[in-house]
Design goal:
alpha+beta, 8-stranded antiparallel β-barrel, 2 helices, 15% helix, elongated
Length: 188
């Protein structure tokens, strides 16, 4: 356990040193982020999806901020099966409509490897921004997102299908990654 903590601490320290080196020492431990400017332009999105649990998100470019993601319904209420996503960032919130993306994911054909019981599938679609608060109030635009899912499925442990992939079983490992870019503008 002690070794795992040491490796994790070394990873955080290494990342901080790399960022500090890349930006000429401008970033340090305990440094506060500058206020988010209200400029339009290209924004890049990097996120992970954890189903009904909040995921992490980082926005760079026209918006430099980070926070968590939560599925919500069209009214903004938390809903694990909602077709909208709410980004809760340090300087405010941004919501986007993922209805088209989720429809494409639902009809995506997985790439399946039966020897390892693993599969992946992806979909890409524009996601219009639908509302925002805080520093992002008055935002408009859309980001084109690619949602990629990778899973490892269990094998049957007994019976006539023993050793075969259990396609209806709960995954033994899964990861969902969302990346994308788009142009945003601010009014007012």
């Amino acid at each position: 356990m002690r070794h795992n903590r040491a490796f994790a601490a070394a990873g955080v320290l290494g990342t901080a040193i790399l960022v500090s080196t890349l930006f000429g020492g401008a970033v340090g431990f305990g440094a506060t982020a500058p206020a988010t400017p209200r400029v339009g332009g290209v924004v890049n999105v990097f996120a992970e999806s954890n189903g009904s649990k909040p995921g992490r998100v980082v926005l760079i470019g026209a918006i430099g901020d980070s926070g968590t993601t939560t599925n919500v319904n069209a009214n903004g209420k938390v809903d694990a099966k909602g077709d909208y996503i709410k980004l809760t960032l340090k300087a405010g919130t941004i919501s986007a409509n993922l209805t088209a993306l989720y429809q494409l994911l639902g009809s995506a054909t997985p790439s399946f490897t039966s020897a390892t019981c693993s599969a992946s599938f992806a979909a890409t679609s524009p996601a219009p921004l639908t509302g925002a608060t805080g520093a992002y109030r008055g935002i408009s635009g859309s980001v084109t997102l690619t949602f990629t899912v990778a899973v490892v499925l269990p094998r049957y442990s007994s019976g006539t299908k023993k050793g075969q992939c259990n396609l209806s079983g709960d995954p033994t490992g899964e990861q969902a990654i969302v990346t994308g870019a788009g142009t945003v503008a601010f009014s007012g």
